[in-house]
Structures are given as structure tokens and as C-alpha cells.
Write a structure and sequence with these properties.
30% helix; 243 residues; homodimer; 5-stranded parallel beta sheet
């Protein structure tokens, strides 16, 4: 088949995968990805060739996917959430360059902005920004500027990668920055292990968020000025007029 | 069942629905929604009670969903794309208020930021903002401020509702605003009828976008400073460092 399919598998459970992602994983020859994501799908799609690489080895992983496809195989590169948003689709295209082979197909998946929001209530009804707190590939001053701009424009904000082993204080630092523009009682939310064992969602204030414990399995939501709590849910209305 | 399930059906085709959304539509008693979306799913889920309302009657539609559920039925409220992002989940929670009945469940779906991006290549690999150009519920000066803030912070931008019958010039006006901060040759993309008959995706510059024809079935993407065209695809890299 000489094809790489970049598959967004959603948060991790089968029910939140698309029909199309499921079909691609059933029909492929090889499943390749970060080992945690390959483990998530291995049981449901047995009898494939599985290739895993560690977390920071994305370039190696994509090169292996392209090379394996060129041997005549249909290769599914699994990404958690969406295949594009902080996913591998761009790197696959960049590494393939202007070569026409192997064929590349991108299958979108539920990103945690969507899957996490559904657990919290409806925090992203209106305009929002998605910002990663990982400074591995992005200078921190750029992240800081984006946080301030989004807050000043009253966008709701979704924070990806709020913490990791190497950077436990990123969320606290982001909250300190946001508190320059936003009130302490701004409604926020945390989701952890969306669609996996130990799934949780909590609604809290920005002041409380500053001292919250988060890890790399969390996604964080900051409401806009209209966001409120209704029956325990984090709710952002559709706009600024009641129609 | 006395339950309202707010179902994000994705862009419109069956393959891009989640397993969970499909199951909800198979098991519900009533399907309610804007008539275009109900038409999209009616054929695949026959034998249900169907309730449709016009586009601007969202409050009526949600009230009908809650009232119908209280008669003992399982009601699926269908939203195109995601159930939360510019969807009906918030209004359902707002109208139910602190009442505990009917039960509400939110099923996320592929929003066009994700489904459209997969057609264009990988335009949203890094941080981005989602902004609607509809000024029906939001003052235009707020929209303008958000566009400028997102551009100044080098966020990629996804524009929802770039035009409608009542506001054909919104995209042109938005481009004029963005051109105050961004270069004319900034890489952009347009998707139309994602996952439906007549699906198309085109890559163009911001200057060309200013004069492009769009309608309410389009989603528009503005790249960040790193976005380039590779083999005809719109590609935003993962960050600002080559790792």
C-alpha cells in the first residue's frame, strides 16, 4: 500500500474514536507511535506489527513510519487526541517533503479541548485559544505573550501540557501571568485521564488553579468573563447578547 | 429515560462521527436539531421522532428538547461539529438551570478546526485561536480585538462563520484587520463542505483570502509565522526549535 495514515485516536477509549479511525486501525499492517498510545490500542487491534519509540523521539518515529510504508505496508501512526493539534501530521509532511511517496492521509480525532470540555460542561462555547505550556520547542516568553494576549482579548483558554516531570511549575507560572489580567475568581476547570481509567474533572477558580496539582495527563480550561458555574458545571454562554 | 444527549456529529459524514455519537443516535427516541443537521442523519437512523427548528431558534429548540425528555424520552440534540464549540451544550445547561431533570449528557464531536485542518495538511500543529466572525451575539469590536490579539501573539487562527447571507463582507473585513499585523503572503486555507458533497480545500495567501468567496459552509485557517506550503499542503511546524 505504501501509505502512512496519521490517526487521531481521541482521548484513549474506543467510544471516543471516530468510525474512520477505527477502520484505519483495523485495516493497517503496522501500528507505530509513542509506547503509551500503542498500548491503548494494541488489545483491540491484535495481529499487527507494532513499533514504539520514546516520547521525545518524534523525528525518529516519523522517519520509521515513512520508511516502513515504503516497503509496501500500510502504516498507522497513532496520535492521542487529534492527529494535527500538537500531533505528528506536520512532521510526517515535513519529512516527506516534495517526495510523492509514500501516500499520506490524515484522520482527525477528538482533541482534549473537545473531550475535556464535555466532561466539565460547556466551557468552550465561544471563541477560545489553545496554548501549550511546554517550552521544549517554544521559548517561554512566546508562551507568556500568548497567555497575556488571549486573556486581554477575553478568549477562553485551553492549556495543553500544563506540567511534566521536567517542568512541574509551568501551570503555577502561567496562572501568575494570567492573574495580571484576570480576576482571582475566574472560573476554571481541570480534566485528568480523559476517557481512561481514573478520569476526573473539577471546576475551580483561577486562584485555586494556581496551587492545583497537575501532571502531563491533565488539560486545563480558563473561562472567559461570561463563564459561570451552573449545577456544578463550567458553562460559557454563546455570546454577549441574550437571544 | 428523561435524558437529553447533546451529540456532536462532526462535519457531516458517518465516518467522521465517533463510535459513541453513532450509538447515541441509534438508541435515542427523538432526534432534534437545525433542519440541515437532522437531514444529514435521518436516513441512517430511521424510525425516530424528528423535530426540527430554523437556524436562529436555538432557545426554542433547546426548550423543546428538555420538555420532550421530561415526557420520558431519550432525546438526541444534534449539533454539527462539536456539541460544545459554538454548539448547544451550554444553552441546554443554562435552560435546565439547577433542576436535576432531565439528565444531560454531552458527547463531543470533531469540530471543523480539526476536520478542516486534516484536509489542508497540518495547519494547527501549534498554538491557535478559534474565532467566530458572526456578530449576531457578539459586538464586532470584540471580534476585531480578538483578531488583532491573536495575530500579535503569532497564534494560528481558525475563523468560524466567515460569512452568511446577512454579512457577506465579514471575511474581507477580518482580513483587512489582520493585514495590519500580518504580511500579505501569510499562508492561509479555506475548507468548504467538509465531509459532505462538494468538499474542497484550498491553500492561498492572506492577500488572496481577502477577496475569496466564502459562505456559511466554509471554515478559514490563517497560519502562524512558521507556516509554509509543502507539496501543496498547509503545514505549521511543531514549534520554534528543530528537535
Amino acid at each position: 500500500m505504501r501509505k502512512v495514515i496519521v490517526v487521531g485516536i481521541g482521548p484513549g477509549n474506543y467510544e471516543n474514536m471516530t468510525i474512520r479511525a477505527d477502520a484505519a486501525l483495523r485495516h493497517c499492517d503496522v501500528i507505530i507511535g509513542y509506547h503509551v498510545y500503542v498500548e491503548l490500542v494494541k488489545e483491540r487491534y491484535p495481529g499487527k506489527e507494532y513499533i514504539t519509540t520514546p516520547m521525545t523521539k518524534e523525528v525518529d518515529r516519523c522517519r520509521m513510519a515513512l520508511e516502513t510504508a515504503l516497503t509496501g505496508k500500510m502504516v498507522a501512526m497513532v496520535c492521542s487526541g487529534d492527529s494535527g493539534i500538537y500531533g505528528m501530521a506536520s512532521l510526517i509532511y515535513e519529512l516527506r517533503g516534495e517526495a510523492r511517496e509514500p501516500e499520506v492521509e490524515v484522520i482527525p480525532g477528538l482533541t482534549s479541548a473537545c473531550s475535556g470540555a464535555s466532561l466539565l460542561g460547556a466551557p468552550l462555547t465561544h471563541d477560545f485559544a489553545v496554548i501549550s505550556l511546554s517550552d521544549r520547542l517554544t521559548p517561554w516568553d512566546k508562551i507568556e505573550k500568548r497567555l497575556l494576549s488571549a486573556a486581554a482579548a477575553d478568549l477562553s483558554i485551553v492549556l495543553y501540557n500544563p506540567a511534566s516531570h521536567g517542568r512541574p511549575d509551568h501551570l503555577r507560572n502561567a496562572c501568575k501571568i494570567l492573574l495580571r489580567k484576570l480576576p482571582k475568581n475566574r472560573i476554571c476547570g481541570i480534566c485528568r485521564n480523559i476517557g481512561r481509567a481514573g478520569e476526573m474533572a473539577a471546576v475551580l477558580t483561577l486562584e485555586e488553579l494556581e496551587n492545583a496539582n497537575v501532571d502531563m495527563f491533565c488539560t486545563v480550561f480558563i473561562g472567559n468573563a461570561q463563564t459561570s458555574v451552573i449545577d456544578g458545571k463550567m458553562i460559557t454562554p454563546r455570546g454577549y447578547r441574550n437571544v
